[in-house]
């Protein structure tokens, strides 16, 4: 690959790496698994980058590659290995900035979301990232109406999980 292509990829990855970290958090339960998934998504993005034509935004394309990679690896691992429980002690946040109540709410939300199927997780993730339904639909390969209907059903599921 040309150095210009490599420079472009590195720049795009640096600017958008938070979305990859969020995907990793959604599909993993440990720091090691998170790092492994981040690395695998980065590798898949690098392999696919020469074919990225710019028809959609880089983030939309990266969401698609990242979610597909996470879902593929998640399905393989659930057949063979169980994941380790997430440990809140991994967070390195100053005491005065740390909000235990907020952290507990976030933990409960992630536990609820992890009970959803792969497509539902991806849809919730993108919804929480304030993506509009047209971008969600494009990324997941479904119609915009289908994305809206699915999201309404997921909201009901999450309410039942969080408030049985």
Automatic annotation (TrEMBL):
Keyword Chloroplast among record annotations: no
Pfam families, alphabetized: Sigma70_r2, Sigma70_r4_2
GO molecular function, one term: DNA binding
GO BP, sorted A to Z: DNA-templated transcription initiation
Signal peptide segment: none
Source organism, top-level taxon: Bacteria
Domain RNA polymerase sigma factor 70 region 4 type: 108-158
UniProt KW keywords: Sigma factor, Transcription, Transcription regulation
All copies of domain RNA polymerase sigma-70 region, residue ranges: 14-79
Similarity annotation: Belongs to the sigma-70 factor family. ECF subfamily.
The protein's name: Sigma-70 family RNA polymerase sigma factor
């Amino acid at each position: 690959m040309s150095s210009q292509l490599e420079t472009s990829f590195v720049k795009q990855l640096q600017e958008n790496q938070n979305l990859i970290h969020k995907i990793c958090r959604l599909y993993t339960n440990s720091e090691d698994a998170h790092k492994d998934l981040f690395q695998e998504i980065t590798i898949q993005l690098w392999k696919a980058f020469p074919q990225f034509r710019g028809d959609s935004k880089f983030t939309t394309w990266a969401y698609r590659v990242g979610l597909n990679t996470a879902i593929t690896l998640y399905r393989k691992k659930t057949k063979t290995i169980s994941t380790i429980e997430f440990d809140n002690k991994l967070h390195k946040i100053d005491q005065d900035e740390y909000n235990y109540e907020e952290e507990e709410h976030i933990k409960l939300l992630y536990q609820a979301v992890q009970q959803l199927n792969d497509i539902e997780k991806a849809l919730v993730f993108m919804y929480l990232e304030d993506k509009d339904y047209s971008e969600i639909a494009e990324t997941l390969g479904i119609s915009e109406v289908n994305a809206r209907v699915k999201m309404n059903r997921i909201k009901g599921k999450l309410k039942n999980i969080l408030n049985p």
